[in-house]
Design brief:
With about 160 residues, the protein is mainly β. The longest helix is centred in the middle third of the chain and has 6 residues. The chain has one domain. The chain is built from one helix and nine strands, in the order E-E-E-E-E-H-E-E-E-E. The protein has a seven-stranded antiparallel beta sheet with strand order 6-9-8-3-4-5-7, with no helix packed on it. A two-stranded antiparallel ribbon has the order 1-2. The protein is elongated, with a radius of gyration of 19 Å.
């Protein structure tokens, strides 16, 4: 599937395709946080949209947006078998494409293709996540963060 060179929104704005080359060996993806939930998606386009100012309707301001195709949550069997080291996901169909505010993008990861052989003997195209050591995607893997202070105020997780 190759994205169209541009896309028109309902309001007549044009979203231009991001002009960059991606390695055939990996997909660049972004962590997106929405309503406290973290998702991983492949950015198809970046755009700037003219949005009407609520306080002064005759003025417009620019808002950054991204058209993002989501990846599935990590496969729980791969997570368990790999001691939570292999977050293996599928790139979801085009109907799982969303427009998000670029301020919702909280990080970047690489999604490396791999084709594991399933129990049925079929190979399936999946992607495993590689992140920078400083990135925190624990919320994507389902871990809950304790927001409270611990005894010494250092906020280290309990053992």
């Amino acid at each position: 599937m190759s994205p169209a060179p541009n896309m028109h929104s309902k309001d007549g704005y044009i979203c231009l395709e991001e002009n960059h080359r991606q390695s055939e060996e990996r997909n660049n993806a972004r962590d997106i946080k929405e309503e406290g939930q973290t998702y991983v998606g492949k950015v198809r386009y970046f755009a700037q949209l003219a949005v009407e100012d609520k306080q002064n309707p005759s003025h417009k301001h620019w808002k950054g947006a991204a058209v993002v195709q989501l990846y599935s949550p990590p496969d729980p069997d791969f997570l368990t078998l790999s001691s939570y080291m292999l977050a293996s996901c599928k790139l979801l169909e085009e109907e799982f494409t969303h427009v998000v505010n670029i301020k919702q993008i909280v990080g970047a990861v690489a999604m490396i293709p791999h084709q594991p052989t399933l129990a049925s003997g079929e190979e399936e195209l999946r992607y495993f996540m590689v992140e920078k050591p400083s990135m925190d995607i624990a919320t994507f893997l389902g871990n809950k963060e304790d927001k409270g202070q611990d005894e010494d105020g250092m906020n280290f997780p309990a053992e």
